[in-house]
Structures are given as structure tokens and as C-alpha cells.
Design a protein that fits this description.
2 helices, 136 residues
């Protein structure tokens, strides 16, 4: 056994879920992300995506950023399960608030008991009852 093996942060695959897509990212025990994984680019004015730029504190070095810190910088909630090496970024709070204010349920697709897929949007204008069950 290597004498330094207990201090090395071994690289392993993490699954990063963002906007209903997932990617495999190599990182150590703490998820460090290059902002480009989420579509953000580091520029002199900060982290930028499309026409939005957010300032980056001076203590954040170029390169990968701790995922929790990155989530805070770009205003996105994050859930991390380090044991399973999974991180999921949620939509920004403003986007979720806009959706709630609209009164329109987000579209989704689920199979019926025969495996036939149905989209919620297929039933627009009709009354729909959804039953949810969990065994825990």
C-alpha cells in the first residue's frame, strides 16, 4: 500500500444533473466543477452565460470551483449525495417563481399501467387527477 494513499483525493466519476440532462464528470471526494459543464464561461467580468454575467469573488481561483460554491454564485439550488457521487442543480428561484405564478403545471410524461406514455399537456383543458404513491 502506498504510504500517501490515505491522503490522496482519488478521482472518480460523478453524475451531474442539470436541466434534465446528466453528465459524467471526474472529480475527487468533493465535487469540483468547471463552470463550462453548466454552460457558464469565465470572463473578466465574471461567470457569463448568454447575456447574464455574475461577479466572481477574488478568492475563487480560475478552473474548477467547488460545486456548492458555484451553485451559490449562479443562484441555483443544488442537492449533493457524496456517497453516490451525484449532484443535481435545480432551476433558479426566479424561474420557479415565474412557473408558480403562471398557474400552469409543468409538462411531464409518464407511462400508464400498460406502458403507454402520456403527457400532461395532452389533457390541457380537461380535469386531471394525479395519484402519487411512495412506499417509504
Amino acid at each position: 500500500m502506498d504510504a500517501r494513499s490515505d491522503t490522496v483525493d482519488l478521482m472518480a466519476a460523478w453524475t451531474v444533473i442539470d436541466e434534465q440532462q446528466n453528465q459524467s464528470v471526474e472529480s475527487g471526494d468533493t465535487l469540483m466543477l468547471d463552470p463550462t459543464v453548466l454552460g457558464w464561461e469565465r470572463k473578466p467580468e465574471g461567470l457569463c452565460r448568454d447575456d447574464i454575467c455574475v461577479p466572481v469573488p477574488a478568492d475563487v481561483a480560475p478552473g474548477p470551483i467547488d460545486a456548492s460554491r458555484l451553485a451559490g454564485l449562479i443562484g441555483r439550488p443544488i442537492a449533493i449525495d457524496a456517497d453516490e457521487r451525484v449532484a443535481a442543480f435545480a432551476a433558479p428561484a426566479a424561474d420557479r417563481a415565474d412557473t408558480l405564478r403562471s398557474g400552469i403545471a409543468p409538462d411531464f410524461e409518464l407511462p400508464d399501467i400498460n406502458g403507454v406514455l402520456h403527457r400532461l399537456s395532452d389533457f390541457r383543458g380537461k380535469k386531471v387527477v394525479l395519484y402519487a404513491y411512495a412506499s417509504w
